[in-house]
Amino acid sequence: MKSKILVLSALMLALLPFSLSAKDKRDFTDSFPLDGCSFVNEGGNSYFILEPGRVLSYDNGACLEEGDCDELEELTITVTGDTEDIMLDGQMIATRVVEEYETADGDFAERSRNFFAVCQHSGDVYYFGEDVWVPDGMGGEMGGADGPGAWRVGEDDAMPGIIMPGGAFLLGARYYQEVAPDIALDRAEHTGMGLAPDLEVEGLDGGLSDCVEVTETTELAKQEESVKIYCPGVGLVVDDDLELIGIEE
After folding, report:
1. 84: which residues sit within 8 A by CB, 6+ positions away?
2. I need a labelling partner for 36 at 20 to 30 A (CA). Which of 71, 87, 167, 188 fits?
3. For position 177, what pLDDT does the model report?
């Protein structure tokens, strides 16, 4: 799950008067109360749902229609039935594997298998690492555990980060999503709430409301910024110019 250069989405959003800049000087939390967690790999929380068999589809069709994008990007996120065992401080955690598959104009662009587990006490969803594959230039894939940006808790001083906190969404909260020195250091800030994206999503009954905005940055590329929108009971609905178009449960 890598940050992208910010592209403004062509959404009509209803935004309550609560927003913060992601450019202030406050620190990002990089240490979390892991000792009190009993981890499970199903459930998640309202904004980040880990239910095996769940598939979310995205594309940048709206951006293309407005002439702001020059190629069709498509993304599929699948909560798989697979688990990945990862050692954390002597405890073996069976994490849930979530696969992301990206294409550009129909051609393979990137595939990743991301490892998540839920702290039952708090509802926080922790990120334990990812394997990454990219095109090999000959019509295939290369990468995996040593792919670009790949990392894993327990290797090279990497520790879990939080991909989405449980409980109340606190405006202004700042925390690391990835804690892998020199490899992956994505950070999140809660920058908006009360959003209502106007999207037509196949498989979704009703509209989207009470959604929240998370702005992502990274220490490894200070000019990069990505804006994501999550909606309760649905999960990720906007990732820069990618918009949710379908859900399969």
Report:
1. 94, 95, 97, 113, 115, 128
2. 188
3. 98
Kindly report the pTM of this predicted structure: 0.90
pLDDT at 237: 98
Select from 182, 248, 178, 172 the least CA-distant residue to 212: 172
Query: What span, in angstroms and rounded, lies between the C-alpha atoms of 159 and 247?
Result: 31
The pLDDT, as a whole number, for residue 11 is 38
> Which long-range contacts does 203-209 make (Cβ < 8 Å, 24+ apart)?
203/246, 203/247, 203/248, 203/249, 204/234, 204/244, 204/247, 208/234, 208/237
Q: How many CB atoms lie within 10 A of CB 121?
A: 12
Structural domain boundaries of the chain? 34-248
Region for residue 11 given its phi and psi (left: phi exceeds 0; alpha: psi -120 to 50; beta: otherwise): beta
- One-character DSSP codes across the chain: ----------------S-B--TTS-PPPB----GGG--EESSEEETTEEE-TT-EEEEE-HHHHHTTS-SS-EEEEEEEEEEEEEEEETTEEEEEEEEEEEEEETTEEEEEEEEEEEEETTT-PEEEEEEEEEEE-SSSSEEEETTSTT-EETTSTT-EEEEEE--SS--TT-EEESEEBTTTB-EEEEEEEEEE------BT--S---SEEEEEEEETT-TT--EEEEEETTTEEEEETTEEEEEEE-
